[in-house]
């Protein structure tokens, strides 16, 4: 007795199972790849969002710094204006102090019998005009001015004899000199010390 075995249907079944498994693995691979791609896309999107937040924060911080910088520049300009004003005030104060110191020092240099009518002061340059009852007193005044450590460039510009004033004859004079700025400062420090 002979048995006839047909192996074709069994092979066909195996092939069918292999195909199904292949399709299942293919679908699984596609799903896994899609899942990975979705996960990577979500991760990159999240990183992008975080980076955008950082950029927005930096832009905001930058704009705040720009505002502070512009306020600082404005404050610096105001400070410079105040410093200039202060410099002008100090300069005026120094000139006033020099004038006061000069006016305090001048009586010691003018001898008795010499009368000053007019003092013209332009910064550190001074012109005196007045009268004297004798030439000797004018010479003494000129000598005092030339020897003074406060003064320099002493010049007698004119002496006119016999000018009638107050019922007497006088010599009128005009003298000019410059005040040494450093000497006034030294004189001031010496008087305070």
From TrEMBL:
Entry keyword annotation includes Transmembrane: yes
Origin: domain of life: Bacteria
Keywords, comma-separated and alphabetical: Membrane, Transmembrane, Transmembrane helix
Statement: the UniProt record of this protein carries the keyword Transmembrane: yes
Organism name: Vibrio paucivorans
Residue spans crossing the bilayer: 21-44
A Gene Ontology BP annotation from the UniProt entry: type IV pilus-dependent motility
Name by which UniProt lists this protein: PilN domain-containing protein
Pfam families associated with the record: PilN
């Amino acid at each position: 007795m002979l048995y006839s075995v047909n192996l074709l249907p069994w092979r066909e079944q195996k092939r069918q199972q292999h195909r199904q498994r292949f399709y299942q693995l293919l679908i699984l691979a596609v799903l896994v790849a899609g899942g990975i791609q979705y996960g990577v896309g979500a991760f990159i999107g999240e990183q992008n969002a975080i980076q955008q937040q950082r950029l927005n924060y930096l832009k905001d911080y930058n704009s705040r710094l720009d505002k502070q910088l512009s306020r600082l520049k404005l404050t610096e300009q105001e400070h410079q204006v105040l410093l200039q004003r202060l410099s002008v005030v100090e300069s005026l104060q120094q000139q006033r102090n020099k004038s006061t110191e000069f006016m305090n020092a001048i009586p010691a240099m003018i001898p008795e019998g010499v009368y000053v009518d007019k003092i013209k002061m332009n910064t550190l340059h001074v012109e005196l005009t007045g009268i004297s009852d004798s030439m000797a007193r004018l010479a003494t005044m000129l000598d005092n001015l030339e020897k003074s450590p406060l003064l320099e460039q002493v010049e007698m510009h004119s002496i006119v004899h016999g000018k009638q004033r107050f019922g007497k004859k006088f010599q009128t004079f005009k003298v000019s000199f410059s005040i040494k700025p450093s000497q006034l400062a030294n004189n001031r420090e010496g008087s305070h010390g």
